[in-house]
């Protein structure tokens, strides 16, 4: 796991969002005039204002979107489908991707934070778009994409009971649609059900939920590694693969799809290492 996690940590995708977030933070703080920027109250107000207009955690996002919309969105994220957000607020979109990406291994994350044109799914599985961008009709009707449109909320859709620190998101209406809506009675991947269980457990703090996510991802990446070695390296027959999936507790359709997508997140170094050990079995035998 250490070797694999090092491969994930070195991915280029990890660097891009952070730099943009830093720029966004600098822009927000620059709203103070040179004279008032010396006042700590002004800086505190700006930092707080910036934080209020973004998603803070998966639990926060689930509260804002609603349980059913969040489940649909999370399902598409875990399956590797393209997740598209259309909004004017780039910071809001960036925060959404920062939160959603925590459900995936680093190697499975490809983000284009904000674009003035639609980008194909092979280029990114997280895509932020400005509101005026036209999305191809075949994408809107595709079962392999989900769209979140962020609109200005009308008075009738405002939530009067939201907590004070959620008021800035209260001005938005979030519409989640897909060509393949997730049925309410669909079992879904096992990891999604466990994530939802952690998010709904109010006895667990946000930090504890984060640790649960780390453990769940490690658990399922271990299954991915076993499956990769079994199918790609050892070239076992399909019947044996089905038996292995049952042993791993991943024989259901959604779990199989998830494992195949997560397999793309394995680093090239790790894959090459496994393949090289198979190609030269005599070297290991000679050492014994």
UniProtKB/TrEMBL annotation:
Keyword Phosphoprotein among record annotations: yes
GO molecular function: GTPase activator activity
Subcellular location: Cell projection, Cilium; Cytoplasm, Cytoskeleton, Microtubule organizing center, Centrosome; Cytoplasm, Cytoskeleton, Spindle; Cytoplasm, Cytosol
Biased composition (Acidic residues): 1-15
Chain residue ranges for the region called Disordered: 1-25
UniProt cross-references to Gene3D superfamilies, sorted A to Z: 3.40.50.12430, Folliculin (1.10.10.1730)
Keywords carried by this UniProt record: Cell projection, Coiled coil, Cytoplasm, Cytoskeleton, GTPase activation, Lysosome, Membrane, Nucleus, Phosphoprotein
GO CC term (a single one): centrosome
GO biological process, one term: positive regulation of TORC1 signaling
Domain of life, source organism: Eukaryota
PROSITE patterns documented for this protein: DENN_FLCN_SMCR8 (PS51834)
Residue ranges occupied by any UDENN FLCN/SMCR8-type domain in the UniProt entry: 1-267
Subunit architecture: Interacts (via C-terminus) with FNIP1 or FNIP2 (via C-terminus). Component of the lysosomal folliculin complex (LFC), composed of FLCN, FNIP1 (or FNIP2), RagA/RRAGA or RagB/RRAGB GDP-bound, RagC/RRAGC or RagD/RRAGD GTP-bound, and Ragulator. Interaction with FNIP1 or FNIP2 mediates indirect interaction with the PRKAA1, PRKAB1 and PRKAG1 subunits of 5'-AMP-activated protein kinase (AMPK). Interacts with HSP90AA1 in the presence of FNIP1. Interacts with HSP70, STUB1, CDC37, AHSA1, CCT2, STIP1, PTGES3 and PPP5C.
Family: Belongs to the folliculin family.
Protein name per Swiss-Prot or TrEMBL: Folliculin
Organism: Bambusicola thoracicus
């Amino acid at each position: 796991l250490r070797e694999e996690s090092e491969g994930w940590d070195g991915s280029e995708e990890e660097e891009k969002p952070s730099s943009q977030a830093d720029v966004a933070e600098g822009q927000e703080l620059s709203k103070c005039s040179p004279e008032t920027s010396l006042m700590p109250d002004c800086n505190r107000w700006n930092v707080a204002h910036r934080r209020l207009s973004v998603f803070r955690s998966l639990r926060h996002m689930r509260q804002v979107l609603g349980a059913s919309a969040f489940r649909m969105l999370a399902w598409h994220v875990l399956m590797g489908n393209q997740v598209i957000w259309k909004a004017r607020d780039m910071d809001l979109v960036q925060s959404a991707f920062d939160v959603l990406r925590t459900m995936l291994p680093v190697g499975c994350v490809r983000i284009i934070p904000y674009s003035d044109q639609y980008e194909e799914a092979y280029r990114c599985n997280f895509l932020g778009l400005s509101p005026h961008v036209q999305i191809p009709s075949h994408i809107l009707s595709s079962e392999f994409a989900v769209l979140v449109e962020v609109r200005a909320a009308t008075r009738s859709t405002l939530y009067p009971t939201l907590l004070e620190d959620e008021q800035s998101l209260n001005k938005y209406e979030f519409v989640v649609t897909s060509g393949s809506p997730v049925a309410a009675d669909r079992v879904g991947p096992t990891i999604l059900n466990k994530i939802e269980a952690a998010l709904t457990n109010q006895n667990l703090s946000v930090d504890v939920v984060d640790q649960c996510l780390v453990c769940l991802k490690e658990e399922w990446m271990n299954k991915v590694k076993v499956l990769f070695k079994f199918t790609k390296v050892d070239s076992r027959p399909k019947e044996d693969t089905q038996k292995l999936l049952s042993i791993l507790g991943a024989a259901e359709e959604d779990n199989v799809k998830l494992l195949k997508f997560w397999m793309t997140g394995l680093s090239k170094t790790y894959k090459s290492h496994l393949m090289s050990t198979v190609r030269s079995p005599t070297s290991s035998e000679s050492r014994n």
